[in-house]
Write a structure and sequence with these properties.
Layout (H helix, E strand, L loop, with lengths): L2 E2 L6 E2 L3 E6 L7 H14 L4 E6 L5 H9 L4 E3 L6 H9 L5 E5 L15 H8 L2 E7 L6 H12 L4 E10 L2 H13 L4 E6 L8 E2 L2 E2 L8 H13 L4 H7 L20 E5 L9 H9 L3 E5 L13 E4 L8 H5 L2 H12 L3 E5 L1 H6 L2 E3 L5 E3 L5 E5 L6 E9 L11 E8 L2 E6 L4 E5 L6 E3 L1 E3 L2 E4 L2 E5 L5
Parallel strand pairs: 3-6, 3-7, 4-5, 4-6, 7-8, 8-9, 12-13, 12-14, 14-15, 15-25, 16-18
Antiparallel strand pairs: 1-2, 10-11, 16-17, 18-21, 19-20, 19-22, 20-26, 22-23, 24-25
């Protein structure tokens, strides 16, 4: 760790970094972010990766590139104190924050964008632009983004999908003519493709070639990157005074957390809060037919892709019996999205085949008739429980394609969308067992 002399004792140097944003999704933000992180690691820098918004998949690539966990920064669901806490924990390091969607895109309420985060902490923005099918027009695009809001600073651009040296020269000259700084370019390369599926990219953990991909991306970017110039503009976040954050309270003293490629959607800050509260965290793999630890007094089933592994999960007796045994012992169980489906009676896969699940909640779901559910949610508990007292408020996010065939029992949350509209009752609870399709991000009452 690097230190600055400021009297005695010595104090750590503040973290410095940038926001990598884009005009829209599919611009190459994740690939450029991962490549730049890998290059910084090779330079011997301690790197802290972040992702804006409620994303679980992109952070997997950034975590692998950095060799440390990527954490989410969500300016809609998290308040200033929470955001400041997460950024402030990185003293002595470089940080890179990958934006979400386009620079100015956020919740339907109009807030929560990458630009809002950059403005709140006075951080420089580097715009990643996919230049496929563009020439000099890229300069107009970059200039428009740079001038759209006066409270953020677009420091320059990095190009992706550059077709040839001649294309690169044209792009650079066009940007120079309007005063847009070019930090680098990533050449078009069929080997640099991040495959997709219905919830986004194929998870980093599912790619056998992940290290080779990250190294190749870093080496390709390094051929045309002004790395010293990027280091020069790296800035320390400016923190404003704000009320302390209130974390999601731990489910128990020993929380068994499902973790594998079917249950990978878990926010690191939530587990960090639970550990900071004194809870012990252990992990188990449902796909490996493991059940939760017998001495755990709580079980957390996060979201993921159980629908892609429904047949295997239905046949994993140790896992399902482990859940049922935990329920019989009075263990608190929380399922989110995919974890919620597994707590139900059954899941119908995309081919119309039904797979029996744990049978702990009155829920039946199907992917045979898919329907997308997407958006931020504001929730309040309907009754006292391990998550808090009745009325406790949370902010979260919903993103899935499952249809509910049947959902019977006591509801868990009263919910509204980001606009505070479309009130509904969602999720289920049965004693100490509960779940919903919503991924909890933070307690409410502190978000802007």
């Amino acid at each position: 760790m690097t230190y600055l002399q400021r009297g005695s004792p010595m104090t750590p140097e503040p973290a410095r970094g940038w926001v990598l944003a884009a005009p829209c999704s599919n611009s190459g933000k994740t690939l450029v972010s991962a490549a730049l992180i890998r290059l910084m690691v090779r330079e011997g820098l301690a790197v802290a990766p972040f992702k804006v918004g409620p994303d679980y998949i992109d952070p997997g690539f950034l975590s692998a590139a950095a060799g440390s966990a990527c954490r989410n920064l969500d300016p809609w669901a998290m308040g200033p104190a929470r955001l400041g806490q997460l950024l402030g924990d990185q003293a002595g390091s470089r940080f890179l924050i990958e934006g979400v969607m386009g620079l100015f895109d956020g919740a339907v309420s109009g807030d929560g964008s990458t630009a809002d985060l950059a403005a709140a902490f006075n951080l420089p923005v580097v715009l990643v632009i996919n230049t496929k099918g563009q020439g000099a027009s890229v300069a107009a695009l970059a200039q428009g983004f740079a001038n759209f809001r006066t409270d953020i600073a677009v420091a320059g651009v990095i190009f992706t999908q550059v077709a040839s040296p001649r294309h690169r020269k044209l792009l650079g000259e066009a940007c120079a003519d309007v005063g847009i700084r070019v930090f680098g370019a990533l050449a078009s390369d069929p080997a640099l493709i991040l495959r997709e599926r219905h919830l986004g990219l194929v998870q980093a953990a599912e790619r056998a070639d992940l290290e080779r991909l990250l190294d190749h991306a870093a080496e390709t970017l390094a051929r045309d990157l002004d790395f010293p110039a990027l280091q020069e503009i790296a800035a320390a976040p400016v923190f404003a005074a704000s009320k302390p954050t209130q974390p999601i309270q731990p489910l128990g003293q020993h929380i068994a957390v499902a973790r594998d490629i079917a249950f990978g959607f878990c926010y690191p800050h939530v587990l960090g809060d639970w550990r900071a509260s004194g809870a012990r965290i252990s992990f188990f793999s449902p796909l490996a037919d493991e059940g939760p630890a017998l001495d755990a007094d709580a079980v957390y089933l996060p979201g993921g892709y159980p629908e892609l592994h429904a047949g295997a999960l239905a046949g994993n007796k140790n896992f399902l019996d482990g859940l049922r045994g935990a329920a019989a012992r009075g263990t608190v169980i929380l399922g989110e999205c995919g974890g919620y489906m597994v707590l139900g009676q059954g899941v119908v896969d995309a081919d119309g085949v039904r797979h029996a699940m744990a049978g702990l909640l009155g829920l039946e779901t199907s992917f045979a008739a898919r329907k997308m559910h997407l958006g931020y949610r504001q929730m309040r508990l309907q009754a006292d429980g391990k998550l808090g007292p009745a009325g406790a408020a949370f902010r979260g996010h919903e993103f899935h394609y499952a249809s509910i065939v049947q959902e019977q029992g006591e509801k868990l949350f009263t919910v509204r969308d980001a606009l505070g509209e479309q009130e509904d009752q969602v999720g289920l609870r049965s004693g100490h067992i509960m779940g919903s399709f919503i991924h909890l991000i933070d307690r409410a009452g502190q978000a802007p």
